[in-house]
Amino acid sequence: MRRTSLATVLALAASLAGCGNNNGRGGDGGSGADLGVPSGDLAVDPWMQDPPVTYCFLDGGFSAPPPPGGSADCPSDKNREGCPCPTEGMTAACWPGLRINRNLGQCMDGMTTCMKQSELSLVWGPCVGYVLPEPGATAGKAACKCFSSGQWRLDNLSPCLIDNGGGAGSGGAASSYLMGNAVTCPMGAMQPAQPWTTDTITADCEGHFKLCYTLKAGSVSNPGPNDCVVARSCTEGDYTMVNMAQSFPPLPSWISMDTACTKQFALGGYGEMSVTGTTLTCDMLDQVFLRVGYCPLYCNNPMDPNYNKTVCASCMQGGSGTF
Questions:
Q1: Which residue from 77, 88, 246, 293 puts its CA 20 to 30 A from 6's CA?
Q2: In what order do the strands lie in the sheet with 269-279?
Q3: Which run of H or E residues covers position 266?
Q4: Is the dihedral angle over the CA atoms 185, 188, 192, 196 positive or is it negative?
């Protein structure tokens, strides 16, 4: 049996190249009838056919705002045109649409002014400047949903393939780590003490997300259900900084002793980004959203006769995907 005192470790880089106003629409413009809300007494069913958005708090609880006062025709939370108001000249937010869309995505409240209707009555005037959902839109900002997209950015995607004398991957594989800006492999067949990579998330809705990066042997252009898994590393947490990059827990280091899969990965492999989670407004996410192809091994050695500068220039040690 051949023995080696020190394994040769190769870092394999990933390549992302080639892989992987007041428009009044849908509303009544303050004509006096809430969208989807029948006439009747609010005390019978406060929300009737026009319920508010349901919120899934980050600890898993659920809550709903208190029901409005007033009547079905003049609920206190919408300040509808023609409904009673308290003080002449007073301005307030108004909303002629469905509660479930209010102030989500592109939707936004308008403004209305309390005006004198007669000597003895004051009513809210026209609702001006509101924006309703795009007709036919079912998801994202145009449909006035909280969540339309998120981005997961990883600072390092490189695995280290261990060569114990039988070729790359013959000794398994381990995660690399960043030392400064340099991708660094552990000495021999050992799991690094350092995390694999730092990462950030940016999204337009708060939520709790679990994101995983899975290394598989196979073709990025033709992934199959039986592609073997070299390693999988995940991070999980609450995202609370809407439309801002928020650091997530680093992806843990890993080691794989599945030499058959790692040797196959050296011949062709890819990384798979996936997400599961729940947004603040209870949208459920569960999808693979990006596959990243890996550069040929010769990119680690500029002296290799197969080295192709153009191909290797497109290889990146980090990357990002949109979910």
A1: 293
A2: 229-239, 207-217, 269-279, 284-294, 14-15, 315-316
A3: helix 259-267
A4: positive
Single-letter amino acid code for the residue at 93 = A
Supply the DSSP symbol for 100. Answer: G
For 313, the enclosing helix (H) or strand (E) is: helix 309-313
Domain ranges of the chain: 8-20+147-322, 26-132
8 Å CB contact between 53 and 102:
yes
DSSP sequence for 76-120: TTT--TTSB-SSTT-EEEE--S-GGGTTSTT-B-EEEEEEEEETT
Cα pseudo-dihedral 300, 304, 308, 312, rounded to 10: 0
Beta bridge partners of 111: 93, 128
pLDDT tens-digit map of 75-130: 999 999 999 999 999 999 999 999 999 999 999 999 999 999 998 999 999 999 99
End-to-end CA distance of the chain: 48
Residue 253 tokens, joined? 């280091």
In whole angstroms, give the CA distance from residue 168 to residue 230.
13
Q: Which CATH architecture has domain 8-20+147-322?
A: Sandwich (2.60)
Q: What is the pTM of this model?
A: 0.77
As a whole number of angstroms, the distance between CA 102 and CA 125 comes to 20
Rounded Cα distance between 238 and 261, Å, is: 34
User: Which residue type does 220 have?
Assistant: V
**Paired residues of 68 in beta bridges:** none
Structure tokens at 310: 């153009």
**Secondary structure (3-state) at 90:** coil
Q: CA dist 255 to 228, 269, 271, 319, Å?
A: 15, 16, 15, 21
